[in-house]
Known about the structure:
Chain A is an alpha+beta fold and 469 residues long. Chain A is 39% helix and 14% strand. Chain A folds into two domains: 15-156 and 325-349, Periplasmic binding protein-like II (D-Maltodextrin-Binding Protein, domain 2, 3-Layer(aba) Sandwich), CATH 3.40.190.10; 159-324 and 384-469, D-Maltodextrin-Binding Protein, domain 2, CATH 3.40.190. Chain A is globular and about 70 Å long. With 296 residues, chain B is mainly alpha-helical. Chain B contains twelve helices and two strands; from the N terminus they run H-E-E-H-H-H-H-H-H-H-H-H-H-H. Chain B has a two-stranded antiparallel sheet with strand order 1-2. In chain B, a hairpin with a 7-residue loop joins strand 1 and strand 2 (45-46). The longest helix of chain B has 32 residues, at 2-33. At the A-B interface, helix 1, helix 4, helix 15 and helix 16 of A face helix 1 of B.
Amino acid sequence: MKKRFVTKSTVSVSSLLVMAMLAACSTNNGTNTEQTQSAAQPESTAEKTKISYWSIDRHDMDYMQQQVDSFNATNTDNIEVEMKVMADNYNQAVEVAFASKQAPDIFRSGDFQTFVSKGYYAQLDSLLSQEFLAKFDGLLVEDIYSKDGHVYTLPNSGQFWRLIYNADLMEKAGYAEPPKTLDEMVDAANKITEQGKSAGVYGFASNFKNGSGFTRPAFASGSLSSATSHEGYNYQTGEFDFGMYRDIASAMRQIKEDGSMIPGAESLDIDPLRAQFAQGKIGMYVNHSSEPAVYASQFPTDIRWASALVPTKDGQMNGVTWVNAGGYLGISAQSDKQEAAAKFLEFLYGTELRAEYQEKGLGLSVLPYVSEVAGKPELAGIDGFLPTKYDGMYPVTPLSITDTKLEGKKFTDVFIEYILTGKPDLEEAISDLNARYAKALAAARAEGLTNIEANPSFNAASLQGTLGE
Amino acid sequence: MHKNRIGAYLFSFPSFFLTIALGIYPVLWALRYMFYDYQGYGTPRFIGIGNFERVARDAEFWQSVANTFVYAGGKLIITLPLSLILAVILNRKLRGRHIFRAVFFLPTIFSASVMSIVFYIVFNSYNGIINQYLLKLGIVTEPVDWLGAGFAMLTTIIIAVWGAVGNYMLLFIAGLQNIPEDVYEAASIDGVNPAQRLWYITIPMLGPVLQMIIMLAITTSLKGYESIMVLTEGGPFGKTEVMYLYLYKLFFPLTTTGSSVQNIGYGSAVGFTTAIIVGLVTWMYFWLSKKLNNVY
C-alpha cells in the first residue's frame, strides 16, 4: 500500500516536473519580450488580418505605438498590427523565432548578412511598388539593404559622426571655431589641458576600454580624408590599407604624449566619458548623433557644447564622414501575410510620419525625401549633426568577415597600443596589419564568404552631397 | 521492488533530460563543428584539423592562456592562504563569529557582473574613491589608472580574491570542524605554538578536504572571465584577455569590437583546447598531490 502510494506520488511529481519543463520550453515568441503593447482594438476581430511587429527601439516606443494605433484605426484593409518591443539579445530572439516557425511578420532588421544568409527576409522588390521603391533611388547599398539585385530592407535613420566639443573650453583656449585640421586638434587639446589641468580638465578623450575608442575618431576622420577607403578597406584596390589611419593615430598619440588625454582613458567606457564631458572635464571627443538625446536626459548638463565635422590632416575633405544606417525593417520570408506587412511598412515610411519622427528628435533621417520637408528637431545640440554635404553612406566592406579569418591582433588593438604606449613602430604596425588582413581577406574570398571585389572606379567624393547640402 | 525502480527512473528523468539537452548535446554540437569552417550561416565546410592548426599558431590565444595563468595563479596564491587563515580564526569560539562569517561570505551571493560595475566606479582614475583617498593621503600625486595597461591585471585579481575568499573560507570551516578537538588538546599539552598548530596539525588533517578545495579553486579560476568582461573587456589592447573571454568573443562577438560575425567552427576548436588545458592542469594537480600524499 505504502509502495503504491510512493509510486503514485512519484509519478505525479515527475509528471508535474516534466509538464513544467515542457511549458518552459514551449514559451513562444513572448520570451525575451520586454514590453508588449497591444493596441486597444475594436469589436469585430474575426475578419481582421493580424500581423505581429517586433521592434528593438525603446527610445521611440511610445511614439511608434501611437503610430501603430493610428494605423490600426485608419487602415482600410482591416489589418491589425501588434507591436512588441524586444529586450537585449535581439538577434538570438529572432533566430529562435525563425527556427520555431514563430517569426514576426514584420521586424526590425538585425545583422543584414546573417539575416539574409539565413533566409529570414522576404524580397521587398516583389512586395512593394516600384513607385514606392523609387524614393530610395541611389541609397540601396548592396550588402546593407540589397543583395544580388533584390531588396531586403530599407534605410531610415542614421548615425552622423562629429567632433563634440565644450565651446567654453575651446574659446578659453583661443579657438573661436572648432579645429579643422588634426594639428589644430592636438594644439587645442594641449591648450585646454594647460589651462584646466589643475581643475581636472583635459583636452581630449576616447573610450579605449574597447576597440571603439579608436574607431570612433578614426573611422570618422579617416573616411572624410580619404577618397578611396573606409574601415581600413580600399574600395579601388579591393585590399585593406590601414595607412588611412596613420594621421589620426599619430595625432592621438601626440595628444597622449602631451598629457592632454584624460587620465584613465585606457579603461574608459563611453558612458563614463559622457558623464565626465557633461561635468565639463573634457574638451573634445568624437561620437555620433545620439549625443543630444544623451545630454538631454541621461546626463543632463549645463555646459555649452556643440559639434562640428571631424578634423582631417590638412582640413581637406576628399571623401565623406561615414553614416551608419543599417536596414530598418524586414518582412518575414515565412509570413503568410506579407502583403499586409508591406502595407504597414509603407505606412511607416510615410513622409509626414518620418518628418515628425525627426522633428521630435527621435532620429535623424538619411532619406532625402524626409530631410527636404522635416523641420528642425526639438533637441538641443542636434543642429551640428544634421546631414551635410560631407556625410554619406559607404558601400559595405568585408571587414567583419575578414575578422573571422584574421590571425593575430585586430587593427583596433594595434592602434590603441600605439596611441597609449608609442609601440610598436607605426609604419611597421601598418604594414604588418596590411599583410595579415590581406591574408585573411584572401582566405575569406577563397571560401566564398564574401564577393566584395575591387572597384577601380570608386571615388568617395562622389558620395558628397548624397544626403545633404 | 519493480515499481520502486520505475519511481527512481521517473524521478531521475528530469535531471537526465536536462543533462542531455543542456550538457551533452551542446558538447557534441561543438565537437562536430570544430572540424568545420562555420560562421553561423550557410553550409559548414569540412576542413579537418584546419582549426586546430590555427589554434596552434594563434599568438593571441596563447597570450590569453598565459594571461589566464597569471590571473588564476595570482588569485589562488592570495585566496587560499587568506581564506584558510580566516577560517582558522573564525572557527574559534569568538564572539560575533557568525556575523563575521556572514560578512565574508556575502560577496559570494552577489552577481559578479553587478559587483564589477561597482568596482569599475571604485577603481576609475578620474573620480574613483580609491584614487581620491590615495591623493588625499599623499601616497600618489597623480591618479593611478587601476584598469589601465599597467595595473589592470592586478586590479582584476584583487576583485576576484574579494569575490572568492568567503566561499573558500566556508569550505575550510566545514573541513576544520571535522578535526577532532582532542588532537589539539594533546598538542597544547605538548606546548605547540599557533604556527606549529596550523602547519603540523590543521593543514595535514584537512587532507582530502584541502585537496578538493584547491582543485575547485584551480578550475574556477581558470574558467573565470565574467568580471573581467565587465571591468576591461579584456583590454586595454588585450592585457587582461583570459582564454574563456577570448572564447566567448568568438561565439558572441561584442559589438564594441567591430566584428559582428560569429566564428563557430574556430570557436569550437578553441573551446575544446581550453577544456583540454583546464583538464590537464587539474590532472597534473591530482597527480602531484597524490605523489605528495605518498611522500608524507
